[in-house]
Amino acid sequence: MFMKNFEAAVKLTDQFAKEHNKLFAVTETGITNSAMKKTGNERPEWFTEILDIITRTEYHCAYYMVWSNYDSRNNYYAPYAASRSEAGALHGHELMDPFIRFYNNEKSIFAVDQKNTLTGSTAPKAPKLAGWGNTGYFTAPNGGTRILDAVTISARVSRGVTRPVIAVSNGTVEIKLDTKAAGQSVSAQLTEDVLTQLGETANGKITLLSGTEQLAELTVLFNIPEKEPDPYMVDDFESYYGVDSMLTASWAMNKGSGNDLTVALDQETAQDGYAMKFTYTETAGGYAGATITKDVDWSDCNALRFWTIPDGKQQKVVIQIQANDTCYETYLNLYDAYNARAGKPTLVTIPFTEFGQRDTAGNPKGGLTADCAKVSSFGLWVNAVENQFFQNNGVTGTLWYDNITAIKTDTQSVSFEDVSNTAQTKGGSVVSGWALEQVNAAEDNTLVPDILAGKDLTKRITRAEFAAVAVRLYETMSSQTVEVGENPFTDTTEPDVLKAYKMDIVHGIGNGKFAPDDLVTREQTAMMLTSVYVKLNGQIPAAGVISFADDTDVSDWALNAVAFMSDKGIITGVGENRFEPQGSTTREQALIMALDMFRFFAECKFGYTEL
Question: Is the pTM value of this prediction over 0.85?
Answer without folding.
Answer: no
